[in-house]
Design goal:
Elements lengths: L7 E6 L7 E5 L5 E3 L13 H12 L4 H8 L3 H18 L24 H14 L1
Antiparallel strand pairs: 1-2, 2-3
Helix pairs in contact: 1-3, 2-3
Length: 130
């Protein structure tokens, strides 16, 4: 895995998570498991917990709610959601535009909070134009 060798040996299961297979590279001697070099690597939560966390994120649950659903402290849920977001973002490639591209320009005024004079001027122009 580390040296890109295809020569590996299965080395039993992870003692803390028996569903994870451990491996050892025959060439460089490095140990790794099923989650090595993924966004889930280096953490002790079971894969099922990570998948459920991702599912709950898709439902727009808060970190506190995710923690409650998974039986985790809210800080642990925060770290998991942050790691998932960063991992997903880092794996996305930037879009590449090719050929002819058309873009429309839109200007939307969402409001004039703190600037009531601008609203009065716009209303005066609109009334004067009629």
């Amino acid at each position: 895995m580390h040296c890109a060798s295809a020569e590996i040996n299965k080395q039993g299961r992870d003692p803390t998570q028996p569903e994870r297979q451990k491996y050892r590279c025959k060439d460089c001697g490095r140990w790794f498991d099923d989650l090595s070099e993924t966004i889930l690597a280096g953490h002790h939560q079971p894969l099922r917990t990570w998948v459920l966390c991702l599912y709950f994120m898709g439902l727009n649950l808060s970190n506190r709610q995710i923690g409650q659903e998974l039986g985790l402290h809210k800080d642990d849920a925060q770290r998991m959601t942050q790691q998932l977001r960063e991992g997903i973002e880092s794996k996305q490639s930037l879009p590449v535009l090719d050929g002819e591209v058309e873009a429309d320009e839109v200007y939307v005024v969402a409001g004039h909070k703190g600037n009531p004079e601008a609203v009065k001027k716009k209303r005066a122009k609109a009334v004067g134009a009629d």
